Amino acid sequence: MTSRIDIIGTNGNEGSHYGEGCKRQTMADIYPKYYKDVRHLDSVDVYRVHRLFGVTDNELHHASKKILLCGVRTGGKPARKEIEEARDTLNRWLEIQDEDERQ
Asked: What is the pTM of this model?
């Protein structure tokens, strides 16, 4: 009788000794648009996140940065104030969209 460890030793530890139906799906497999491969990067900052996810609007950059760094930036603003400012920026983004649609 062959033990499981012998099978792994022969086939590797990547799950190739199991059928395709037995491989566990990761969240990245299920929701690929939410995950980006960053193995080629040493680190990731807010600006890289924007590029990775294709965020191009200045207003969305501003709001996203406020949310991601809420309460930890050097300005000393409370988290609630940062979120209120992000909300105000997002409201302005919506106004701009409405203005552009009326043209």
From this structure: 0.67
77's CB contacts (< 8 A; 6+ apart) are: 71, 85
Structural domain boundaries in the chain: 1-35, 42-103
To which residue do tokens 């919506």 refer? 94
Residue 65 is encoded by which pair of tokens? 């940065």
pLDDT tens per residue, the chain (103 residues)?
Answer: 566 666 666 665 665 555 666 678 999 999 999 999 999 999 999 999 999 999 999 999 999 999 999 888 777 889 999 999 999 999 999 999 999 999 8
Which two three-digit tokens encode residue 23?
Answer: 């491989």
Q: For 19, phi and psi rounded to 5 degrees?
A: -70, 165
- What radius of gyration do the chain's Cα atoms show? 23
DSSP-derived letter for residue 33 is G
What is the Cα–Cα distance from 3 to 11, expressed in whole angstroms?
Answer: 12
- Own/partner contacts of 65-71, CB < 8 Å, gap of 24 or more, are none
